[in-house]
Amino acid sequence: MTVKDLRSELSAVPERFWIASSYPDQAGVVAWLPLVKISATDIWLGIDREGVWTLGRLEGAVESSRESMPSSWVTILDGDENALRTALDSAAERFRISSAILQGMVPIDAVLTMAIKSRSSHWVERAVHWMSERDISREHLELLQDLTTADWASQRIRHIARRLVKTGG
User: Fold this and answer.
1) What is the Cα–Cα distance from 60 to 159, expressed in whole angstroms?
2) Other C-beta atoms lying within 10 Å of the C-beta of residue 143
3) What's the rounded Cα separation, in Å, for the pair 146 and 78?
4) Is the separation of the CB atoms in 99 and 107 below 8 Å?
């Protein structure tokens, strides 16, 4: 299944489910489909009619992953990856869209990279936690290797990073 197929499926989703919002840095309105609530502060992961991921509140502006990943996307890591993926499956079923393509397109790897590069203790710890539960890409192994000796990282994070590098994930 391709993004073109997903767009076709999205076009069949009834209008009542779409939210009209603005992007903070652009004029105009975007229609997006909220799929999964990812935070207690009512932030939702969704997708626009073109198949581009969005993140925002039901009332207010949304951020798009179209050109670059906004830093607010690290909030996805406050939850659990398995719970996120289960919720995506439920949303796909509810809206009659392909779960396989949603699962394949969700930009988790980019979010993990951004979190580690942020040097924020909280987001790095969340990213390392997620990585300990999944297969780790070569890029992430390199970031973890750097993390093992990063003087800004806590001893706990450096130890977890060492363990993940040693086991390859």
Assistant:
1) 40
2) 23
3) 23
4) no
Helix, strand, coil shares of the chain, percent, nearest 5, are 50, 15, 35
**Torsional class of 51: left (φ above 0), alpha (ψ -120 to 50), beta (otherwise):** left
Q: Could you tell me if 44 and 37 are in contact, meaning their C-beta atoms sit under 8 angstroms apart?
A: yes
> What is the separation, in whole angstroms, between the first and last Cα of the chain?
29
> What is the pTM (predicted TM-score) of this model?
0.88
Mean pLDDT by 10 residues, the chain (169 residues): 85 95 74 93 92 90 79 91 95 94 91 94 94 92 95 93 87
Q: Cite the DSSP H helix spans in the chain.
A: 3-11, 81-95, 99-105, 108-118, 121-131, 138-147, 155-167
Q: Is the dihedral of CA 99, 104, 106, 111 positive or negative?
A: positive
Sign of CA dihedral 100, 124, 79, 82: positive
Whole-angstrom Cα distance, residue 150 to residue 140? 15
Q: What is the DSSP letter of 90?
A: H
DSSP β-bridge partners for residue 33: 47
